[in-house]
Amino acid sequence: MAQRGIFITFEGVEGAGKTTQAERLADALGPNVVRTREPGGTPISERIRDLFFASEGITPMTELLLIAAARAQHVDELIHPALKANKIVICDRFIDASVAYQGYRGGIDLELIQQLNHTATSGLMPDLTFVLDLPPEIGIQRQQDSATDRNRLDNEPLESHRKVREGYLFAARSDPHRVKVIDATQSPDAVHADLLAEYQRFILSR
Ligand code: TMP
């Protein structure tokens, strides 16, 4: 098989600390890392992100299709070339977010989501995915305490956040080799240590 880089994704409910942890892991892994996010990561995909957040009344299907469009551009323009150049790509959210948000939260058929994910990514899968797991009420409280900017989805009812969590745990059960659930109720240092340990295990098993 052709040599390629490593593709790592971070997932979790709002306020789980994934952006901070992705940053810490990137720092720990050194200069060969490319950090990116979804929806977004390229100029076109960032414009779709703005539309995604700005659109009150948007339906789950429209969300899914916008995200898939942003993803297709992101994979072609940034992720795939970086992996070909042997980089470690760390992406804040990816395909499992569509299962959790548009599937579990939005009620869209999971098979359709998987097909669309497959089309948008040309079949590219993360090598390793971290789900930073915690009860959503703790995540929301953390966001309120830290005065983080809140988006349209952050402000949805608790029930919707619970469904997202359920969706992520389903993704982890469906693909336990790739998706690792990390207890995000721990201190940031303990979460970072768990992530590094999982990463080492992954490297040794490659
Ligand atoms: P974040 O940058 O705070 O993680 O926000 C991204 C938002 O986009 C988050 O609320 C989840 C949402 N999202 C989806 O609904 N589906 C997806 O496939 C992705 C990647 C993100």
The named CATH superfamily: P-loop containing nucleotide triphosphate hydrolases
Task: Tell the overall outline.
Answer: globular
Strand order of the largest sheet: 2-3-1-4-5
CATH architecture assignment:
3-Layer(aba) Sandwich
Within the CATH hierarchy, at the fold level, what is the topology?
Rossmann fold
Percent of residues in beta strands = 5-15%
Bound molecules: thymidine-5'-phosphate
Spatial extent as radius of gyration: 16 Å
Instruction: Give the proportion of residues in helices.
Output: 55-70%
Low-confidence stretches: none
Taken in chain order, the helices and strands follow as EHEHHEHHEHHEH
Structural class: alpha/beta
Short description:
The protein has 206 residues and is α/β, with parallel strands linked by helices. It is built from 8 helices and 5 strands; from the N terminus they run βαβααβααβααβα.
